[in-house]
Amino acid sequence: MSCKVTAVNGDLATAEGREKAIGWWRRNGFTKLWLESYRHGERVPTERLVEERDAFRAAGFEVCGMITPTMLNDPAPGAKEAQMVVCWSDPKARERMREECARAAKVFDTVILDDFLFSVCGDPFGQCARCAADKERRGIADWSEYRRALMYEVCEKDILPAAKAANGTAHFIIKYPCWYRNYAERGYDPVRQAKLFGECWVGTETRDKNPEPIQACWIMAWMDELTGGRCGGGWYDALDCTPEKFVEQAYYTILGGARESFVHCYDYLLSDNPGRTPFGEKARGPGACRAAFERASGELRRLADVVAGAERGPFSMGGNGVSTHVFFKDRKCYVARLNTKDVPVAGLPPHGFELREYRAD
C-alpha cells in the first residue's frame, strides 16, 4: 500500500497513527509500504521520512519510496499555483525533479514514480513556446515524437543520474497509467524506458467507467510481454469506484499475474483527509471500500498464493459478464471465475468470486 504525502505528513507522523495503520495492514495481509516524499508541490521533510521508514521496518514491513512528479514549474503569471502536468522543457522543473529524486534515493533504495512522467505541451493540446523552440532545435517534426524524446531524456539524464549519485544502489521504477491508448502521444515509450529503468509497473485502476473491466487483468500480461518481462506490479485505487469495483480491480490485478499487487492508497481508505487528487477524482465511499477490501482480503491472499509461480492458462470474458481464468501449478489446475455484474450470473452472486482446484491430469 502507498501512503501519500498527506498521510505521511499527517496520520502517520505520530506513534499513535502509525500503530493504528500497522494493525490494519497486518490484519489485511499487507507486507510492503511505499511512503511518498513529494506530490503536487507538497514535500515530506527528510527527517520524517527516515523516522517513519525506520518505525515501519521495525514493525516488519518492507518500506520503499514514492514520488509524484507534478507541479514542478513556476506558476504562470497571475496564477496562484503551478500547472499540474509538468512542462518538461523547463530547466527549473527538471532541476526540481533531480532534487526530489536525490532526496528520495538517500532515504529509500527503491522508489516508484507515479504516472505523471508525460507531456501535453504542443499540438493538439496547446502551444508552449519553450517546447516549440526545443522541438525545432532538435529537428523533430512530429509533436508525439518530440514528447517521447523529451521524456526519455528526462529519465536518462535527470532522474536516474540524480538517484544514482545520491545512492549507488538506488532502484527507480516507472509506473505507466491505465490509459495505454495514449502512451505514444503523451510521451511514454515503455519498451525503451522500462529497459532504462530495469523495471516498470502498470495501472490497473479501471474504476467504474471503463467499459472493459478485464483490462485490469490483461494489461499486466501485455505490459510484461511488451517490456521483456520487466513489469513487476499492478496499481489500483478507490477513486471513482463503488466498493464492488474497487475489489474487482484487486482480483484482476492478481489474476493478471502481477508479482506485486499495490493498493493506492492509505489516504483514500483510512484517513479522514484523502488529500488532493489531480483531476477531481473522488474517493466516494472510503469506508465502504475499506470494508469491502477487509471482507475480501483473505480470499485475495489465497488467490495470490495460488497465482504465484503458476503457469497462466487461458482467460476470457463471457458475454454474461463473468470472466474465467485458468492456472496450472504443482500438478493441479485452478479455475477462477469473477462476476462483474450487479446481479447473480452463472451461479455466482453479484460481483462474486470463486476459485476451484482440480487435478491437472
Describe this protein's structure.
This protein is α/β, with parallel strands linked by helices and 361 residues long. The protein has one domain (2-310): Glycosidases (TIM Barrel). It is 40% helix and 20% strand. The protein has 12 helices and 13 strands. The protein has helices at 5-9, 15-27, 46-58, 91-107, 129-138, 143-166, 183-186, 190-197, 215-226, 243-255, 266-270, 286-307, and strands at 2-3, 32-39, 42-43, 62-67, 110-113, 171-176, 200-203, 231-237, 260-264, 311-317, 322-329, 332-339, 353-359. Strand 7, helix 9 (215-226) and strand 8 form a beta-alpha-beta unit. Helix 4 (91-107) runs parallel beside helix 6 (143-166), helix 6 (143-166) runs parallel beside helix 8 and helix 10 (243-255) packs parallel to helix 12. The mean pLDDT is 95.
Task: Identify the notable features of this structure and list them briefly.
12 helices; 361 residues; alpha/beta; 4-stranded antiparallel β-sheet; TIM Barrel; 9-stranded mixed β-sheet
Task: Furnish the topology, listing elements before pairings.
Elements: E1 2-3, H1 5-9, H2 15-27, E2 32-39, E3 42-43, H3 46-58, E4 62-67, H4 91-107, E5 110-113, H5 129-138, H6 143-166, E6 171-176, H7 183-186, H8 190-197, E7 200-203, H9 215-226, E8 231-237, H10 243-255, E9 260-264, H11 266-270, H12 286-307, E10 311-317, E11 322-329, E12 332-339, E13 353-359
Parallel strand pairs: 1-2, 2-4, 4-5, 5-6, 6-7, 7-8, 8-9
Antiparallel strand pairs: 2-3, 10-11, 11-12, 12-13
Helix pairs in contact: 4-6, 6-8, 9-10, 10-12
